[in-house]
Write a structure and sequence with these properties.
The complex is a heterodimer of chains A (about 475) and B (about 1000). In chain A, about 45% of the residues lie in helices and about 5% in strands. Chain A has 18 helices and 7 strands. In chain A, strands 2-4 form a two-stranded antiparallel ribbon. Chain A has a two-stranded antiparallel sheet with strand order 3-7. Chain A is globular and about 110 Å long. Among the domains of chain B are: about 90 residues, Immunoglobulin-like (Sandwich); about 150 residues, TonB-dependent receptor, plug domain (Ferric Hydroxamate Uptake Protein, Chain A, domain 1, Beta Complex). Chain B has a 22-stranded antiparallel β-barrel. In chain B, strands 10-15-16-13-14 form a 5-stranded mixed beta sheet. Chain B is mostly beta strands and about 1000 residues long. The radius of gyration of chain B is 32 Å and the shape is globular. Classes of the chains: A mainly alpha (about 475), B mainly beta (about 1000). Chains A and B meet through helix 1, strand 1, helix 3, helix 6 and helix 18 of A and strand 24, strand 25, strand 26, strand 30 and strand 31 of B.
Chain lengths: ~475, ~1000
């Protein structure tokens, strides 16, 4: 028995030693990745919050968004562009209006990723305090995140839902998610999505100034003016002509921006902070998943992929002398085809800044709003002629909605607008049967289920509360 | 065996007879320590019913008949001793410790060795005598085909090429299936790092000659004490140690020659064949092969008039291997030493490939007084793996030889390299090998120190502390004169270090109660910390003269990675047996790992095992043909902790935008993330019959739960998927092994061995409602109810005899010529049903002849490069295999291949077509070795202690029906332009002095 006691004594001693090691080594089991930061750490200090805000932006350059696809679709499905003789299959589905749930627009992923990043920043700024950090400094970050979230929702609801103007937003929009979590959110109505966009932008307008963080391109950061410009556009899409005109006027009267002159019109594209640009997406090879190839400049360049070129229908809209007609280039092997030159590249691999909101559009928004009943104090004819004068186009004597719609095409082509200009005005797509060679429908009437892209398969399968758009 | 009979006898001591009697008494002690030994059995020889055993002080007293001659003293772990009574009444005896032969024991986790008859789990061992280190560049490769249930996949025949080890199938889709490898008690890093090359087997840093034995722990009972690291089994590697006695030096020299294997008549077309093929394909495409103006289709017969090159002869070489080793073994009762220095240099059969190794090992054991032992195991090694590009790279010599046409020659007339090689994009394999540099180097240090102290009798404390350090660097330089180096020379370099510190501390208590109950209790604590750091740099424009990064002018890029993990464990094991008949093992371990999410940081793992030595039972005493009959059963739970170092954290990583640094979420937080759990049942039967037939039979079930899968998320979460513990997978299998000593004793001995394993993997649950998930390679799929992965291929229906068009089955089962309409079907599986091997050994007066074979059946392989090498004209302008000669020419032809059309667009060679799926069964005559140990008398005359001459042939022949040089593929079943297994002839000389 003595032996047993002895054993127990030694065992106890050893266990005490082990116990000591235990308490000293348990901390070792907390190993954090050295090259990354935990969510909690990022969202709890101002300096990291600044970095997290910067980190929201780069998704805008995603090849499925402004980086290429979203912008290309806006013109291709709107009839401004078509498949070129160089086409090797890219964007054929969109050109045919043949998208289904597995071939739908890729916007869903980057836009919701951006929303989740913006949510993290917005929610972290609530009640944020840190010594030496003013409310204005925090407000700036929150305002930028609110704008970016609103832009993502605006683009999502345009891509995957029927236009607001069709039924005052009664149809299904996209899920409004304001707190990032592993949820299965259901779709809100289009009206609810727009209400959130307006609310976000209105809040942002009051707290956002200009970002001053040493950025390369000021126009690629969210400013108060960018927020106002997006509000003007959002109100236009909602048919709120008064507010559209009011906000457009704020930009038109802002001396920070000036319309391009005819002389400079050919050299303002893709570069940093051209005089008209209110907000643009900064392009850089490091933001690209396949630098040089996944760029919008490459798809529109006949010496690159050149899959997509301009339609004659668009080209025919330009009168002789209009500088905008010079912004095209050809290919020696394919006469009769012209490719847009709005994305010439600021470096050798055709990386461009992508304009999202610019001053000319503000004139066009106010012109349209006035024509549709807003009392802006400026006659509609003045706004359209202001732009035409700067483009060496002849002045119009009077302006109709048709004139305005055509001017929008001339001015904003290849910036990704025409598709939604058609749907929000209920006009439908009329393409020229002679030049459009596709298997599917040449013309798409409005209304039609195809004006809303299908919800992607991966979202339907991962989210039990998600419902597909009618018709798909 | 012997011991057990005595036990049995001892038990039958019920009644003993009394005649004329003498009383004998005395004390039994241990010869080495002089301490008394309780429980020693003492019987009268020839009258085994008369006996006793020693008491707690080692004393005994026994009354024996007056005619008793001899007493027999026996005790487990001690040599039996027979003492003539010679009229004495007091007999004190000192028993010598028994030195166990390796074939009588097994190595166990944290416990040194254990007698085989005490095992409760599924454990297999190979000792150095069976390993045949003659032709292996890595120790694991020597295990191939030797142990039932241990499958070694050679992914490449390249020296230093990685191996995939699978013990009893697969446990995981995402957390890895590699077993834990423990060298002399230290779990080592078993991740292969290869940044600049395709080889990089970290296990090839271990000198195979240093290995004394390898033990594979296959079931829970034997492996679960390694807890969260045991799910894929454990391989315990024991290196050689010194022994007391005269110092022995051994010098070994080997030289080998490797040549390509090709046992199924595989070949590419000869010049006449490939030219004719091109001419036919051009005509079928509507072109005239004799029209110089139609340059792409211009294949005139005159091409055969010039110089012709067999490119395979250019890229294959006879690889020479040299190996030299000096080892020392010696010591005394206090200090024992084993040291070895080894140099190994192997050229591959592919030009520009090879492995060089220098290694040093020193194992020292030292005794301080009676209670304290300590020792060190130190090994250091350097390896350099010289490599060439792999897969479909133009720079891969094998791919170049597959593509290059024979009338394209390697050299210009002036002797310079010919770069005008349109069939391989201008890439000349000989020039690449001459001018480019591509290698990985590794420096490995593995050192440990142990200290063992006997606190009181039977109770030992042992601490073992080790450092496993690996430093590696790789370099990939492309000369500007080669296509990959254009325009001005490209360079990539990488270096990394991986450091593991392990402290393992155990307390072990051995207790024997009245010779009936034997206890062996182990308790332990272990802590492991691993840190990995990686940096790489690349740049262009490094030129020729100063091909280093400092000279790079453009596209300079750097990258880095740092990973650290820690593991803290407590474990215990109880071994108990009752009278050597009934054995029980129970083990328990709790692991805390930094890899696990904070909600699941500690895991509990355990196992129970029992066995019954049926032959020791009284009712078996009549069955003399049964020498051993043992029934085993075990059950337990262990885990797989290879779930990624920081997978559980929600983290932000770097982004850039507009000249600003930024942060964005990289990974979704999963604080519940944890180990995959593996539950194992094992039933085993061991037997020895007629002292000749030794074998075992095992049945097992392994069930993986909590299997890691990427579960799709709503993108509104900011992520596409989240890694969760949610899937399930099972393995069921049987193993059988049999060794037969046909002739023993005398000058001649002959034995044969056989092992066979069957394993069936089933994916039980792929989470949520998924019926399948893509495997990452498009021709395979993971399907619920299916095997580890099933081929999911386009259903090829052969060739239309009327038109020569390729045919497919469509979704309705109808025939179509439209490849895009082909249905996809599951055909065959990647993993084999049966894996096994057999061997034979012949010995006669110092001459030994060994042969062994290994085989796999029931699996399919996908020959991916046939898309290009049997392309029906699609890959026009490249060489094709001889299989392409069987093509359609005219209506009525029944052929394997469709009509060849230059620049074919019919997709008859489509990705994932079932046409390229083949049965992978093979039987390989793996090794033949002949050795001659010169008679000692002769050797001593020349002042040597031993002299051995050997001849070894590796990969003697392989029977298979795969349309490639060699039938073996990696665990994905695919791969391009794989490096085939070489045939290696080695002559060796071993001198002892």
């Amino acid at each position: 028995m003595n032996k047993m006691k002895e054993i127990i004594k030694y065992l106890a001693a050893v266990l005490i030693i082990f116990g000591f090691i235990f308490t000293s080594c348990d901390d070792e089991l907390e190993q954090l990745p050295p090259e990354q930061l935990s969510n909690e750490l990022v969202l709890s200090t101002y300096d990291n919050l600044v970095l997290a805000t910067n980190g929201i932006y780069n998704l805008l350059y995603d090849a499925n968004w402004y980086g290429r696809e979203f912008t290309v679709i806006g013109d291709l499905k709107g009839g401004n562009s078509k498949s070129s003789p160089l086409n090797t299959g890219r964007f054929q589905t969109e050109y045919n209006w043949g998208n289904n749930a597995s071939s739908t627009s890729g916007l869903w992923t980057p836009a919701y990723y951006l929303i989740s990043r913006a949510n993290n920043v917005i929610n972290a700024t609530e009640g944020f305090t840190q010594t030496g950090i003013t409310e204005a400094m925090i407000g700036q970050l929150k305002g930028e995140a609110l704008f970016l979230r609103a832009l993502a929702y605006f683009d999502l609801v345009r891509m995957y839902a029927q236009p607001y103007t069709a039924d005052n937003g009664a149809s299904l929009g996209v899920p409004v998610v304001l707190v990032t979590e592993n949820g299965q959110p259901a779709r809100n109505t289009v009206a609810e999505v727009y209400a959130q966009i307006v609310a976000d932008l209105t809040t942002a307008e009051g707290i956002t100034g200009t970002a001053d963080r040493g950025q390369t391109d000021d126009a690629a950061m969210v400013t108060k003016e960018a927020i106002q410009a997006l509000l003007a556009k959002v109100y236009l899409y909602m048919g709120d002509w008064g507010n559209a005109a009011t906000y457009a006027t704020k930009l038109i009267n802002n001396p920070k921006f000036a319309l391009y002159t005819a002389a400079e019109y050919n050299s303002v594209w893709g570069v940093d902070a051209a005089s008209e640009v209110i907000f643009e997406v900064y392009g850089n090879a490091t933001q690209s998943s396949w630098p040089g190839y996944d760029e919008i400049g490459y798809i529109y360049d006949p010496d690159g992929y050149g899959d997509v070129c301009a339609t004659n229908q668009l080209l025919d809209l330009f009168e002789a002398g209009d500088v905008r007609a010079d912004l095209f280039k050809g290919h020696p092997d394919y006469s009769g085809f012209l490719w847009p030159n709005k994305y010439p590249g600021k470096d050798i691999i055709r990386v461009n800044n992508i304009p999202v909101l610019r001053l000319a559009e503000m004139y066009l928004i106010r012109c349209e709003a006035t024509l549709k009943g807003a009392s802006s104090g400026v006659p509609a004819i003045n706004d359209i002629n202001t732009i035409r004068a700067k483009r060496n186009a002849s002045a119009l004597g009077s302006v109709t909605l048709q004139n305005l719609y055509e001017e929008r095409r001339r001015e904003l082509c290849f910036e990704g607008n025409e598709l939604w200009d058609l749907s929000r005005t209920g006009r439908g797509l009329n393409r020229d049967e002679a030049e459009v060679i596709i298997a599917g429908d040449v013309d798409i009437a409005f209304p039609d289920y195809r004006w809303a892209m299908p919800i992607p398969t991966f979202e339907l399968s991962a989210n039990a509360n998600m419902v597909q758009n009618p018709g798909y | 065996m012997r011991k057990l009979t005595i036990f049995l006898a001892f038990l039958l001591l019920a009644g003993f007879q009394v005649a004329a009697q003498v009383q004998i008494s005395g004390t039994v002690t241990g010869a080495s320590d002089g301490l008394p030994i309780p429980g020693v059995s003492i019987v009268v020889k020839g009258m085994e019913t008369i006996g006793t055993s020693t008491d707690i002080d080692g004393k005994y007293s026994l009354t024996v008949p007056s005619d008793a001659q001899t007493l027999v003293y026996s005790f487990i772990g001690m040599l039996n001793k027979e003492i003539l009574i010679g009229g004495r009444t007091i007999i004190d005896v000192a028993l010598e410790e028994e030195v166990l032969e390796m074939d009588e024991v097994i190595v166990v986790a944290y416990g040194g060795i254990q007698r085989k008859e005490a095992k409760t789990g599924a454990v297999s061992t190979v000792t150095s005598a069976d390993l045949k280190a003659d032709a292996a560049d890595s120790p694991i490769k020597m295990l191939k085909g030797k142990l039932a249930g241990v499958q070694i996949n050679s992914t490449s025949g390249q020296p230093g090429g990685a191996t995939q080890i699978r013990i009893r199938g697969f446990s995981s889709l995402n957390a890895g299936n590699n077993p834990l490898i423990v060298v002399d008690g230290v779990p080592i890093v078993n991740t292969s790092y290869n940044y600049a090359s395709s080889a990089g087997d970290v296990l090839s840093t271990i000198n195979p000659n240093d290995i004394e034995s390898m033990t594979v722990l296959k079931d829970a009972s034997s492996a679960s004490i390694y807890g969260s690291r045991a799910a894929n089994g454990v391989i315990l590697i024991t290196t050689k140690r010194g022994s007391a006695g005269d110092t022995k030096f051994n010098f070994t020299a080997r030289h080998g020659w490797s040549t390509p294997t090709n046992d199924n008549g595989f070949r590419f077309m000869n010049p006449e064949e490939i030219l004719t093929y091109h001419r036919v394909a051009a005509v079928n495409a509507g072109h005239d092969p004799d029209d110089p103006a139609d340059a792409q289709y211009y294949y005139p017969m005159s091409l055969l008039d010039g110089e012709l090159t067999n490119w395979w002869n250019q890229v294959y070489q006879t690889g020479e291997t040299s190996e030299y080793e000096l080892s020392v073994n010696g010591g005394n009762e206090k200090t024992k030493l084993y040291s070895a220095l080894n140099y190994y240099d192997q050229e591959g059969i592919k030009i520009g490939t090879g492995l060089k190794r220098m290694s040093l090992r020193s194992n020292v054991d030292h005794k301080v007084g009676e209670k304290l032992n300590f020792g060190t195991n130190i090994s250091g090694s350097y390896i350099k793996q010289k490599d060439q590009a792999t897969d479909l790279a133009y720079a891969n010599p094998f791919w170049a030889a597959s593509s290059l046409l024979p009338w394209h020659n390697p050299y210009n007339e002036d002797g310079s390299f010919n770069d005008d090689l349109p069939s391989n994009n201008g890439s000349n394999p000989l020039e690449n090998v001459a001018l480019n540099e591509r290698y990985d180097e590794m420096y490995k240090f593995l050192g440990s120190l142990y200290l063992e102290y006997e606190i009181i009798e039977g109770l030992k404390f042992k601490t073992q502390n080790s450092i496993d350090y690996l430093y590696g660097n790789g370099r990939d330089y492309r000369n500007p004169n080669t296509p990959d180096g254009e325009p001005a020379g490209n360079l990539y370099t990488a270096n990394y270090s991986n450091r593991t510190i392990t402290s393992s501390n155990t307390l072990n208590y051995v207790l024997d109660l009245n010779d009936e109950h034997f206890f062996n209790v182990l308790g332990g604590y272990e802590f492991t910390n691993n840190y990995y750091a990686f940096q790489s740099g690349s740049g262009q424009g490094v030129g020729v003269d100063i091909p280093y990064l400092s000279n790079a002018s453009t596209n300079k890029d750097v990258s880095s990675q740092y990973l650290e993990w820690a593991l803290q464990s407590y474990f215990g094991r109880l071994d108990y047996n009752y009278k050597g008949k009934y054995f029980f093992t129970g083990s328990i371990r709790t692991d805390g790992s930094s890899r696990f999410g904070k909600n699941n940081r500690y895991g509990l793992f355990y196992a129970l095992g029992g066995s019954w030595n049926i032959h020791s039972e009284g009712f078996m005493s009549g069955l003399t043909m049964i020498d051993l009959l043992k029934l085993r059963a075990s059950y337990g739970i262990n885990g797989n902790d290879n779930i990624g170092t920081y997978q559980s954290y929600g983290v932000y990583g770097s982004r850039t935008y507009n000249g600003l640094g930024g942060l964005a979420p990289d990974q979704v937080s999963n604080p519940d993330l944890t180990w995959e759990e593996n539950t194992t049942w094992n039933i085993g039967l061991d037997f020895t019959l007629y002292k000749r037939f030794t074998g075992s039979f095992e049945y097992y079930q392994r069930y993986t739960t909590e299997m890691l899968l990427n579960v799709p998320l709503s993108r509104t979460s900011g992520f596409a998927t989240m890694r969760q513990n949610i899937g399930e997978l099972s393995n069921k299998g049987i193993e059988f092994s049999l060794d037969t000593k046909i002739i023993t004793g005398g000058d001649f001995d002959w034995s044969v061995g056989f092992n066979l394993a069957y394993n069936k993997v089933t994916l039980e649950d792929l989470a949520t409602d998924a019926e399948f998930i893509e495997s990452g390679s498009f021709w395979r799929r993971y399907v619920v109810g299916g095997g580890y992965s099933e081929y999911y291929v386009f259903d090829w229906a052969g060739v239309d005899p009327t038109t020569g068009a390729g045919l497919w089955y469509d979704d309705n089962g109808d025939i179509t010529t439209n490849a895009a309409a082909a249905r996809r079907v599951f055909k065959g599986q990647v993993e084999p049903d049966y894996v096994g091997g057999f061997n034979t050994h012949l010995g006669w007066k110092g001459i030994t002849l060994d042969a062994y074979f290994e085989f796999k059946t029931g699996h399919y392989v996908y020959i991916m490069e046939h898309r290009y090498t049997d392309a029906d004209g699609y890959n026009f302008g490249s060489n094709q295999t001889s299989y392409s000669l069987n093509y359609w020419e005219q209506p009525g032809d029944i052929t394997y291949n469709p009509i060849p059309v230059a620049f074919n667009t019919s997709d008859s060679n489509a990705w994932g077509t079932s046409k390229f799926l083949e049965k992978g069964d093979y039987l390989r005559f793996k090794n033949l070795s002949l050795a001659y140990d010169l008679p000692t008398k002769l050797v001593e005359k020349i002042k040597l202690s031993s002299l051995r001459l050997s001849l070894n042939v590796e990969n003697v022949y392989c029977w298979h029906d795969v349309s490639y040089w060699d039938p073996e593929r990696d665990v994905t079943g695919g791969g391009y332009a794989i490096y085939p297994q070489p045939r290696t002839y080695t002559v060796g000389l071993k001198v002892g002095f």
